[in-house]
């Protein structure tokens, strides 16, 4: 199967999932040879029930994509067709990487979690408004789009139109499925639960498909607060998103998004001071033979965390009267001389090979101007983590609602 419908040339196999096999292809009928994703109906079993169910889900995906494909962060359906008694659909190919990659390095900051929630819940709210339940939200079905870094929701092969009284086949991914979905009764709040579990995985580093979060023996609710440190407001939102009883969760992504957007705002420090603080970190990279975006954060509207270790004498005011932590205004040498907490063995343990380290570095914004040696890789990852810690301290203490959605990048 190298060419389909006399126009789609198969480039590579993208793997299987649910009831279909996916391929990357290019459209030979277009002047630009546009790349696309082709899904072929391919049940895992030939028994009549599985075949009927897979056909129903396949045709449902086609119909749902026709309805939802107008959204910028949902793949557009190009066409569906039948060839040699096989069913196919052709949809938009999204350039980017799966969110799973972002869950394998360091734990997410509170700022990243809020940005993630706002991004995916905005798309999911549109889906729920159309009375559709996705049923299989997981990191593998979320693509960080390369051109603008927004999250695209893919794989609508498990979707279901909401029918409150009906029971349906159990479809989803262990660890991201709530109790009611395991009973064949998915709700809009079942998707909210899955998004909350991804956020908790980012914060705690615990993959729910491999290790279950501890639970309260009396209530059955997850015990996760001791695994991370977030503001009380965000903790309350996440706890409600992953309640075991779906009636106690946000009823839909629409309600969950409203709660996230209502997180307490804080006075904004000046842009000048933020860039100065970030500049202290970038000086530490001079001479390492690489260019590195010092900060690339989408800033949420969060309440600043109190810092009992700082007094009025230990802070400095900027032109807008905002107090800045002394540790962010200290000598550049304090960042430039950040200790090497990493070594070659640690990088190999994390990523498996030199080439994989290069790929992870690139995915996280580290850009080398020359082919790096192992020493340069170690320096890059060490300074990257140091800058990450710097930005985390700053954004936790002084989040800037006026910069929400704006990316600040410094490079040289």
> How much of the sequence is in beta strands?
15-25%
- Give the proportion of residues in helices: 25-40%
Biggest sheet strand line-up: 1-2-3-4-6-5
Total of domains: 3
CATH architecture of the largest domain: Orthogonal Bundle
> Tell me, what's the shape?
globular
Radius of gyration based on Cα positions: 23 Å
- CATH fold-type name of the largest domain: Transferase(Phosphotransferase), domain 1
Offer a concise description of the structure:
The chain has 412 residues and is α+β, with helices and mostly antiparallel strands.
Provide structural commentary.
With 412 residues, the chain is an alpha+beta fold. The protein folds into three domains: 3-92, Phosphorylase Kinase, domain 1, CATH 3.30.200; 96-261, Transferase(Phosphotransferase) domain 1 (Transferase(Phosphotransferase), domain 1, Orthogonal Bundle); 271-403, no CATH class. Helix content is 34%, strand content 16%. It contains eleven helices and 15 strands. It has helices at 48-68, 110-129, 179-182, 188-204, 232-241, 253-261, 271-282, 333-336, 344-351, 354-363, 374-397, and strands spanning 3-4, 8-17, 20-27, 35-41, 77-83, 86-92, 96-98, 132-133, 142-145, 151-153, 160-161, 290-291, 315-317, 323-325, 367-368. The strands form five sheets. Strands 1-2-3-4-6-5 form a six-stranded antiparallel sheet, with helices on one face. Strands 7-9-10 form a three-stranded antiparallel sheet. The chain has a two-stranded antiparallel ribbon with strand order 8-11. The protein starts with a strand and ends in a 15-residue tail after the last helix. The model is unreliable at 264-340 and 407-412 (pLDDT under 50).
